[in-house]
Amino acid sequence: MSVLKGMRVVEGSAFVAVPLAGMSLAQMGAEVIRFDRLGGGLDAGRWPLAPNGESLFWAGMNKGKKSIAVDMKSPEGRELITRIITAPGEDAGLFLTNLRVRGWMDYETLSQYRRDLVMVTLTGDRHGRPQVDYTVNPALGIPHMTGPVDSDEPVANALPAWDLIAGNMCVSALLAAERHRLRGKGGQEVEIALKDVAAATLGHLGMIGDVTLNSGDRGKSGNALYGAYGQDFVCADGRGVMVIGLTDRQWRGICKATGTVEAMASLEGRLGVSLADEGNRWRFRNEITAILKPWFAQRRVPEFEAAFNDAGLTWSEFRTVREAVEQDSDLSTENPMFTEVQQPGIGTFRVPAHPAVFSALQRSPARPAPTLGQHTEEILADVAGCTGTEIAKLFDAGVVQSPTFAKPRNAA
Amino acid sequence: MSVLKGMRVVEGSAFVAVPLAGMSLAQMGAEVIRFDRLGGGLDAGRWPLAPNGESLFWAGMNKGKKSIAVDMKSPEGRELITRIITAPGEDAGLFLTNLRVRGWMDYETLSQYRRDLVMVTLTGDRHGRPQVDYTVNPALGIPHMTGPVDSDEPVANALPAWDLIAGNMCVSALLAAERHRLRGKGGQEVEIALKDVAAATLGHLGMIGDVTLNSGDRGKSGNALYGAYGQDFVCADGRGVMVIGLTDRQWRGICKATGTVEAMASLEGRLGVSLADEGNRWRFRNEITAILKPWFAQRRVPEFEAAFNDAGLTWSEFRTVREAVEQDSDLSTENPMFTEVQQPGIGTFRVPAHPAVFSALQRSPARPAPTLGQHTEEILADVAGCTGTEIAKLFDAGVVQSPTFAKPRNAA
């Protein structure tokens, strides 16, 4: 039993944000039907790939969904998709998309078939132009504040952060609109532009007020925690650690654990400032770091690891993803969020469930992603209301596919 | 009229994720009451600051909320907070927090006063240890895949991406749990760990499968779009651009617009591969970039800007935040998401509303953040049910504050 059990969401999507939104809903218990064109959508082969060439990305983004593959160039295919999106049911009529299809698949047309449809559309920008994480991020300035202090080169996020934020926002928007509908107030279209998500976030973080009211631009500060103290250090064993002095408690903890209480006090005396003020820790971070650096340079991580943990310091090691997967129990099946899942056609690896734990409900373990079109017949019968004869005709005419009928996805 | 009108959420929080969650709910129309200790919480002075030292971050993260300041060390203060969190109302009894307070403010205790309480708690990691964006990110490997190709130095995100994702997930989780409660299934606690959000995301993006099934680690690829083609270029006027060839259409668009169709065809011939395959565009990105680089180096942005837009290419310029705010109309009040807002005690600047546009409802413009304790009296009267006499006594005893009674926030 999961928190959204009974809800049905239809998803027509590609790439990160909207697939993630659908997957989050599926992992919270909704029945999520993803439809794709024959052969797979734009993200069917998205990297990273498994050794056999299948997309690990697709498997990751579509866990627990049902998949139907339909020829959307044919009128029959379009009619099927329309029926699936607008199928009856109090907890259905919910559609998530980032495919910019005008005409048959826009809100105006679809809502003629189901007046209380809730449709959440993610666009690139508010003008309807395509944008991706990799264009929004440079346009709004984050790469110019990322990376080594002494460099002028912009550094893009390796993580598609804007997509991930926008995907989660699509979930909220869908649930908010469905709540409104449950109160008898009808359906609606919800539009979210990826670039607006990023622009709003700059405002939320105070960055727009900053450049409006202050002079200059934030600039790069390496791996320092902005606005307080937090810094990376290299230890005697070559391992890197990140140490946080954001709150007063954390800051005092660092000084105590590294035996630098007196050194910091004399730094305060020399500078004539109190480092209890987070802004002073930020302004004089280089002076603070000069005191701490030798301490870390002289010690291997195992020498202080236990003491730091016992003292309740907030710190971590720098690891690669491989090291994290191999070494960190939070990425192992000791963490109940993870299960070893056999992903058909790909292999077995640790797969995460939804991070939220709902205390009144059993946690649902992660399910594998479907293969393309795996649920085509089931969806045609149960959702589109097709008879067995109709279904057979649709397969014969090549309007739909399932793994038994489909050509290999990567045939090109 | 906003989509969540009528809902009341109480928030006890600091920093990014949970304040963002509360603010998103407020911007969708919920009444959000944020309580803080006297003098302000841990994030009361978080950077960036306005010229007068007030926190632009706090103003950004608390827009449209109501604020009450309470001495939570006193039994009276704790009782008030308990009454506010558990106040009656079908659309109330919703509590968001990242303050780890055992005892009087945990779910077990609070739910004794309101059995159907929905409480969403964001923790650091699943063990209950504090974690921040700056520790989760290094621990899970993103800094080792960020930054220049020729560097071994880890590069942290300048954007608190994990916090922003987790904050949006708190919104979804709260709405999902409230939906469940609306169906007569009671309240519950929802726990989300920041580190689990990050760990799950690695899985969703295929990164865990990648290191499990493939050898090696992803490593750094500079500003290249991972897995297909997308690259940054410096133009003749020194300006940087990002150009995307993720989809086949985008890729063909770049080649056509830069007149490199033949050069790419002969590259394909030399390499014996098709660049219509996104994986080949990734594998041979350096060879592709070598062809495109002189084209950009010889041209100023205004020379190709219009042609790129007319051709529907997906591209953008690298800008600083200041340049974006000054030059990009999507960050101006031409974008209906933004309004010039006078933030009391700070100044006037452009402030974003919620990025989602709900078609059945009027878009609510952004509202300023409260000053600390601005709504103390109102909340005591309307939510905690205090009489005028009781309220006066609470102020006299120093249990609560409002701006007229409060000591200056930055008195330290």
Draw up the topology in text.
Two copies of one chain form a homodimer.
Chain A: E1 8-12, H1 17-27, E2 31-37, H2 56-61, E3 66-70, H3 75-85, E4 94-97, H4 107-110, E5 118-123, H5 133-140, H6 161-185, E6 188-193, H7 194-204, H8 207-213, E7 229-234, E8 240-245, H9 248-257, H10 261-271, H11 278-283, H12 285-297, H13 301-310, E9 315-317, H14 321-327, E10 338-343, E11 347-352, E12 357-358, H15 376-382, H16 388-396, E13 400-401
Parallel strand pairs in A: 1-2, 1-4, 2-3, 4-5, 5-6
Antiparallel strand pairs in A: 3-13, 7-8, 8-9, 10-11
Helix pairs in contact in A: 1-6, 5-7, 6-7
Description:
The structure is a homodimer of 412-residue chains. Chain A folds into two domains: 8-201 and 331-401, 3-Layer(aba) Sandwich (Rossmann fold); 240-317, no CATH class. Chain A has 16 helices and 13 strands. Chain A has helices at 17-27, 56-61, 75-85, 107-110, 133-140, 161-185, 194-204, 207-213, 248-257, 261-271, 278-283, 285-297, 301-310, 321-327, 376-382, 388-396; strands at 8-12, 31-37, 66-70, 94-97, 118-123, 188-193, 229-234, 240-245, 315-317, 338-343, 347-352, 357-358, 400-401. In chain A, the strands form three sheets. Chain A has a seven-stranded mixed β-sheet, sandwiched between helices. A three-stranded antiparallel β-sheet of chain A has the order 7-8-9. A two-stranded antiparallel ribbon of chain A has the order 10-11. In chain A, α2 links the parallel β2 (31-37) and β3 (66-70). In chain A, α1 (17-27) crosses α6 and α5 (133-140) packs parallel to α7. Chain A is elongated and about 85 Å long. The model of chain A is unreliable at 406-412 (pLDDT under 50). β6 (188-193) of chain A pairs antiparallel with β12 (357-358) of chain B.
